[in-house]
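Proteins fold reproducibly. Look at a sample protein:
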Amino acid sequence: MTDNAGRAVFTAAPSAVHAVRASAANWLEEVRPQWLRQLLVAAHEQLPAALQDDWAREARYVLRTRPPAAGLRVVHAWQTRTVLPLLATAWARKPSPELDRLDALHRTAAVTRITPDTWRSGLTPVLRRLYRSSYDYPAACAVARAGAAAWALANGHTPEQADEYGRRYAELSATANAEAFAEAHARALGGLLAHAYATDHDDGYAATYPGAQLRAVVAASGPGTQAAGDSPGACGPAPVPAILADGLLAVLREG
């Protein structure tokens, strides 16, 4: 059986990119470097529809008044202030000490270079958990269960037997696929991100598809979480995409 649950997280979502570009009157075409364009497209598409236009206008203003400098300082600041705290909140029931180590690396990178091996060792366990958390396990399990049960029925099993067979098969299949999905992404991205961060290379970071990584953080963090410093109110927690998008603009404003 073919497993499709993880594909959407890692792809560049070209149809979504085209829709965003059309609505934003082509202003994203002029954004440089490429990694920033990818992040802006992904951040915009993940926002609730009611927030997209205002956010796009603010993003254009920020980029006109504070064009980003070369290098990845903005990325490191966004990771420490927004992305990693979101993951820490999402994983609060089972805290991840690897997040603290990766946070320290991003902070250190603001003042000095770090070797690729050090980056890789810090990134890989976090990436593994990120992509395991972002995997759509319920959907994969449902597909596997339905297919296995249908096979069992077609091969002479009773409906009760087929349902039990489907359940057991789905648990084994979905779990194995989720682990493979997470491991493949951790290995592939760990090396690419380590090299990009170690060299402070714009094009190298763009080659890691940062927009797809943003989508993975959204999927791993759930539909909403409380923004740092906010108190719960009648409107409820801020949606994860809004926290990521606004956090990106905040570090861009600082230049």
Observations:
- Residues 152 and 162 are 5 Å apart (CA to CA).
- The two ends are 49 Å apart (CA to CA).
